[in-house]
Design a protein that fits this description.
Blueprint: H1 2-21, E1 37-41, H2 44-47, H3 60-67, H4 84-98, E2 102-106, H5 109-112, H6 123-138, E3 142-148, H7 154-157, H8 167-182, E4 188-193, H9 195-204, H10 218-245, E5 248-254, E6 257-260, H11 266-288, H12 296-308, H13 321-327, E7 334-337, E8 341-346, H14 358-362, E9 364-367, H15 385-398, E10 404-408, H16 420-438, E11 444-450, E12 469-471, E13 480-482, H17 484-495
The protein binds ligand GBH.
Residues 43, 46, 193-194, 197, 201, 207, 254, 337, 379, 408, 450, 457, 466 line the site of ligand GBH.
């Protein structure tokens, strides 16, 4: 009985795939183009551990979590994490097993420069990163290296971190050391990971370290000098290293998709656009637009509110004309991290908003649809169509010339090897991305799954998981074990196609999570 039903189902699926092959139905029919970059991503603080070994300096995450042990629900930190400092050969083996050609990792600034400054370069760190990069290349995996994935050296954090204008020069110094030491073998760099999340949650709020809570002031300083530091590193590379090293360098920005809560309410439609301008345009417009500088809308909004609030000057700093020019076009690709969608409605003020704050400046209330699957972190829901919409928004604003590389995308859950929700998530989000490429003509050149293996997930500690591989945090071996999503991703990479039926679901979870727009 059960098996005959299965036969019928197979027949139905077979006829569907015939349709698909003709391009008439289903997003699974598209094939990833030759040369499409498939990868997987990690970040130093989240996996390396060895927080004080071999002369490593402290990052602000080390310092913050040691002095705030209750910040994470499990009172954990990244002291050991997945122990990649010692187990990097295991990491490389599983990247290889996935069959991807690219691995995005980050360098820990305070591991390489224990004081943050370039007068003291750690020999063990140089040895470590060179070994990792060399072993990747030996395994035919191309490294993509992020310079800053949130682990600011503590001595600089004590001086204000990104809010201190001099950090621009110190970041450039760090970048120079990295290009000098690794640029012969690293050909793709990203300067910053998600300046928006970093500044909004760490300088504006207290969701992330350094938890400064300088709403509406600190976050704009952070944004401003992070952007300038990015441009400084870009031009350093472009002028002094690119001629010989011949690589690419860009930035990674993040965005939720902003869906109007009520799509027939003009206020909500405006709110969604306002949200995207404030939270993505603020970073993307200075770099990727033809005009450069902060979006006019953001400029006016923060200037006007600042004046009303009694400030003599805008809380959002101004770029000089030279700085506008130096930022404009300062990225060889648009690195995009995307995870989830929020519903947007207009609001003048909410109890949870400080005044001033970026929230208040934005004037948008965020919700998620309770019908959307919510498999892990509280901010995370599954809404695949948002991915395609977001890619289109970026393409419409900044043009098709700039290649988009998805530098992170993945699902949050609470763990387990049989991660059907993650399998579905990758299938569905990749299908949306393929439609953005083939139907909408967006210029997407690569995709990096977040993340290779379970890691230290910032605010969530080890309670929520994003890994394709399970890591046994109870064992000193930190054994890595593939989840179903790893097997599924490997198949996508191997066949350059999404096969929605590759992982057979047990009937209890057979219902599909697919959401149609
Ligand atoms: C990425 O950003 C990171 O690059 C990566 O290190 C991390 O592990 C991964 O995502 C998964 O979280 O913005 O007020 O709604 C993290 C993005 C940060 C987005 C926290 C949601 C919730 C607070 N997330 N944020 S809020």
């Amino acid at each position: 009985m059960a098996s005959s039903r299965k036969v019928v189902l197979r027949a139905v699926l077979a006829s569907l795939s015939v349709l698909s092959a003709r391009g008439e139905s289903g997003p699974g029919n598209y094939t990833f183009p030759d040369g499409f970059m498939f990868g997987v991503a990690t970040a130093a603080y989240q996996i390396e551990g060895a927080w004080n070994e071999d002369g490593k300096g402290e990052s602000m995450w080390d310092t913050f979590l040691h002095s705030h042990p209750y910040y994470t629900p499990d009172h954990s930190n990244g002291d050991v994490a997945a122990d990649s400092y010692h187990k990097y050969m295991d990491d490389i083996a599983i990247v290889k097993e996935l069959g991807v050609e690219y691995y995005r990792l980050s360098i820990s600034w305070p591991r390489l420069l224990p004081n943050g400054t370039d007068n003291n370069i750690s020999k063990s760190a140089v040895r470590y990163y060179r070994k990792v990069i060399k072993e990747l290349i030996n395994a035919n995996i191309i490294p993509v290296v992020t310079l800053f994935h949130w682990d600011m050296p503590t001595p600089f954090m004590d001086l204000g971190g990104w809010a201190n204008p001099q950090i621009v020069n110190y970041f450039r110094d760090y970048a120079r050391v990295a290009f000098n030491l690794f640029g012969d073998v690293v050909k793709i760099w990203t300067t910053m990971n998600e300046p928006h999340q970093h500044c909004y949650n760490g300088y504006g709020g207290d969701y992330f370290a350094p938890a400064i809570k300088s709403h509406g002031v600190g976050e704009y300083l952070c944004i401003h000098y992070m952007l300038l530091a990015h441009a400084a590193a870009y031009h350093l590379y472009d002028e002094e290293f690119r001629p010989t090293q011949k690589g690419k360098i860009g930035i990674t920005l993040d965005a939720f998709w902003a869906k109007p809560k009520n799509s027939s309410n003009p206020d909500d439609i405006e709110a969604a656009e306002r949200y995207l301008q404030m939270h993505l345009g603020t970073f993307a417009h200075p770099i990727f637009s033809k005009q450069g500088d902060y979006p006019e809308f953001v400029r006016n909004r923060v200037d006007t509110l600042s004046l009303h609030q009694g400030y003599t000057r805008s809380r959002l700093p101004y770029f000089t004309p030279e700085e506008v020019i130096s930022l404009r076009g300062s990225s060889d690709f648009f690195g995009l991290n995307h995870y989830t969608t929020f519903l947007m409605s207009s609001s003048n003020s909410e109890e949870s908003w400080a005044v001033p704050s970026m929230d208040y400046d934005t004037g948008v209330k965020l919700d998620q649809d309770p019908k959307w699957l919510k498999p892990g972190s509280d901010w995370f829901s599954v809404y695949p169509p948002g991915f395609r919409k977001l890619i289109n928004w970026i393409t419409n604003k900044y043009g098709k010339e700039i290649p988009i590389i998805i530098t992170e995308n993945g699902l949050s859950d609470f763990g387990g090897i049989n991660d059907y929700a993650r399998v579905d998530y990758y299938n569905e989000y990749l299908a949306q991305m393929l439609q953005a490429m083939y139907v909408d003509g967006c210029n997407i050149q690569g995709y990096f799954a977040w993340t290779l293996m379970d890691d230290f997930e910032w605010k969530d500690g080890y309670t929520s998981k994003f890994g394709l591989y399970h890591v046994d945090f109870n064992s000193t071996k930190r054994t890595r074990t593939p989840k179903l999503s790893a097997i599924n991703y490997r198949e996508i990479v191997r066949t350059k196609k999404i096969n929605f039926d590759f992982i057979e679901k047990p009937s209890s979870s057979a219902q599909s999570n697919r959401i149609k727009d």
